[in-house]
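Input sequence (83 aa), recorded before submission:
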Amino acid sequence: MKIKNVEALSYGKIVICHPHNIEGIFQQNKAQILIAKVSEDYASRFRKIFGSTKTISELKNKVEFYIKDYNKIVRSRFEEALR
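Predicted structure, token format:
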């Protein structure tokens, strides 16, 4: 698991990374991590984000919901382990 990506998400940050950096991420399809394989992909993702404040707000809201779900799962697993 790429802990720095999870940490960034926990602070409400938008994450752009290479596909290998999402290996082990909880519910990858819901994580709101933008994938970029080559430099052109990174540039495209940055243009998407910074091209609209609405896009930024939407992504940040989705990140917040993802982290809430993530925290519920982590809490549940700890509770199970302590029983």
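Checked by second reader. The radius of gyration is 14 Å.
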